[in-house]
Design brief:
By secondary structure, the protein is of the alpha+beta class. Helix content is about 25%, strand content about 30%.
């Protein structure tokens, strides 16, 4: 059982703090022959969009070619990864796929998407004065959310079997309140940086 991540969102839904306690476990390394039967989308990363097989899933990113890490779409020497993959002379290729780590911009975008979902859930509830999403359960994680009277949201992502998150969320809120009230230079909507705490 584990706690994967902690997020704090301000009143407007902006991400002001995040802490990750997880490393992606799903990395698959395999030798491929020509032609590659996995289709990759070429954005800022090379991401699998078709051709799931051998634990390589849609959404996984290309992490390495022949042991050399792929950053974005390039190898350390500056070569384009897709050029290597498309050239039959380079095969067989040893490719490593896995879940990409979220960038700070992706975390900010996901946090801003949670805020309206929370508001929609409160409006759609058949009960008056619904508090919105408190627990969202998926097959691989649980999302626990605590919203304060001022609109701050404290979110914890955990293992599905993890218990006692209400107490943890309230303790995080207590620590945040202590930090915010004792720091005269802190505004409630400011991001919290590691050196500030």
């Amino acid at each position: 059982m584990a706690i994967f991540s902690v997020y704090i969102l301000n009143r407007a839904g902006g991400l002001i703090y995040h802490y990750d306690n997880v490393t992606p476990k799903s990395e698959v390394e395999q030798v491929f022959s020509y032609p590659l039967d996995i289709v990759l989308r070429e954005d800022d990363k090379l991401v699998v969009i078709f051709g799931e097989r051998d634990n390589i899933k849609v959404g996984h990113a290309l992490l390495a070619i022949n042991g050399e890490p792929v950053t974005g779409r390039r190898l350390p020497d500056g070569r384009e990864a897709m050029e290597i993959i498309k050239d039959q002379a380079n095969y067989p290729l040893n490719l490593k796929f896995g879940r990409p780590k979220l960038t700070t911009n992706e975390r900010i975008m996901l946090a801003s998407m949670f805020h309206p979902l929370y508001a929609i859930s409160a409006k759609l509830s058949p009960e008056q004065r619904s508090s919105g999403i408190e627990v969202l359960e998926a097959d691989t994680f649980k999302l626990h959310c605590f919203q304060t009277h001022t609109g701050l949201k404290f979110i914890v992502l955990t293992d599905p079997k993890q218990l006692g998150m209400d107490n943890l969320l309230k303790k995080i809120y207590e620590l945040y309140s202590d930090f915010a009230l004792k720091n005269p230079f802190y505004s409630l909507d400011m991001p919290i940086r590691k050196g500030m705490v």
